[in-house]
Amino acid sequence: MVDSELPRTRLAQLMEQRRMTQRDLRDLFQEKTGTELSERQAYRWVNGEVKSLPYAHAQGALERIFDEPASQLLGPPHGSGLVRQHRSLTLGGGVLDREQPDWQQVIAVSARRARDFLSRMEVSNVGSETLDQLGDDVRRLAVAYQQEPLEDLLEDMSETQAEIFRLLDGRQKVAQTRELHLLAGVASGLMARACHDNGASDEALTHARVVFSSADHAGHDGLKAWARGLQSLIAYWAGRYDAAVDYARRGAEFAALSRNTSAVWLAAGEARSLAALGRQDEARHAVERAVDARDRVRRDDLDELGGFCTFNSPRQLYYAAEALSWGGEDAAEDAERYAVEAIEAYGTADETDRAFGDEAGTRCALAISRINRGEIEGAAEALQEVVALPIGRRTHGVVTAVQHVERHLGLVAAESRAANELEDLMNHFTAERLALPQ
């Protein structure tokens, strides 16, 4: 018998004697421990690809199944000592006789190496149906995130991200791995938004870094640009306007390559961050760049997921309104025009394009533009739908947008009954905000 016909471990030898498959081994392991043994780990045990013994509970399970010590089970098969020991010339997964090479043995060892390679290439822990289901789950969450309370979605989002991570720990074909990395990036982006909306910007940025890393592994420039847009958004609402500008500009190179709607997002996000820094002329130029980017958009698979994964026209109008609302009285007329257009666009948009947070932000920008023109009652009217939001929708971004209105009111409005009533209304709103159960 040549070496390639021998089992590599005592475990493989016993399984062969009992006509057990690796699936049988995994089922028995789960029965004994209550935990799942991955396909990859089973393969490594059977084929002797471990450098040390597994954890105690795993050793115990193996010993209960086969009635032999784990160290013996994961060691060489019985009878392997009969193989000649003076061989020392290695070829792939086998050895050759240095003194008198046997070319039949060369062929056998090479075939064994080819079989091993083929088995690793063909083993996959994910099928097309699983990928389709995960894609549907991510697409549903990307749309639902903009329309439903976070507390209703958070557990589902977290579990979806965890499932994708688990699959990436296994082995799959190259194309499947790329698709999983794309889905991991989007799922992590949704978790970044969830952290951000709960006021946890540091944790949000951690998830956003995973988005960029996933995009890098997937070779997806559109997702890289989207990751930078997400980082810019988080920094903006955390009051780190310089960082928000930097993130937006760092995404520009990837946006130029992909030309998906993230290119519009980055320019629009840069505009409002520049405006917050008082750089109004640069902000207006960025608003114009966003318009130009829209004309060159080439939608990709990320855009096709919809919801938060694409930057639609109503959202672009909202960002322009918010950018110009930082410009004071000189920009108030243009800011109001963009805000009204955005509200109208959201009103006629498809349901999947609606986003309660962005619509609230649009109304806050409208309120600021009216405050800058001295129209306090008009500002209060603009905020009516915002202050009526239930607590579950009073996310960090929405509350901060209302606080921006408060800040502008304090800078512009003189003491008056209308101003005092508006201030009280906003104080009452911001006092009760989203706080997820501990």
TrEMBL record:
For this protein, the record's InterPro entries field holds:
Lambda_DNA-bd_dom_sf, TPR-like_helical_dom_sf
Gene3D superfamilies recorded for this chain?
A: lambda repressor-like DNA-binding domains, Tetratricopeptide repeat domain
Q: What protein name is recorded for this chain?
A: Helix-turn-helix transcriptional regulator
Q: Which organism is it from?
A: Amycolatopsis rubida
Give the taxonomic lineage as stored in the record. Answer: Bacteria, Bacillati, Actinomycetota, Actinomycetes, Pseudonocardiales
